[in-house]
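Hey L., structure's done. Input below.
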Amino acid sequence: MSPSEFGPRLLLDQNLSPRLTDLLEDLFPGITHVRQLGLERATDPQLWSRAAREGFVIVSKDGDFHQRSFTHGFPPKVIWVRLGNCSTAQIEAVLRSHEREISAFLADPVAAFLALA
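Output:
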């Protein structure tokens, strides 16, 4: 699957459940989890590099990607899910409720970072 098939694809970081790929495929075609790419043990710089190279948008609860976005710029774009300890269902609900905002962010050629709560 290439980025051009669906536009930018979401790449879920290790701190998000891989089940979200099945739960959110209807809204975000091509959504992928780091495990699907063999990146479950990748460092942040390795994940950043792969996402930039392959046209992914990183979705993470990790504040380090927030900082990396500001210091390194994009690509890749970053979506920071600013929820504390919560369930997969709560994360799914936040991503679903912000679908329009996320889609606009993905389509914006100059937007680099989006925080959701």
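The mean pLDDT is 91. Residues 44-54 form the longest helix (11 residues).

-- N.
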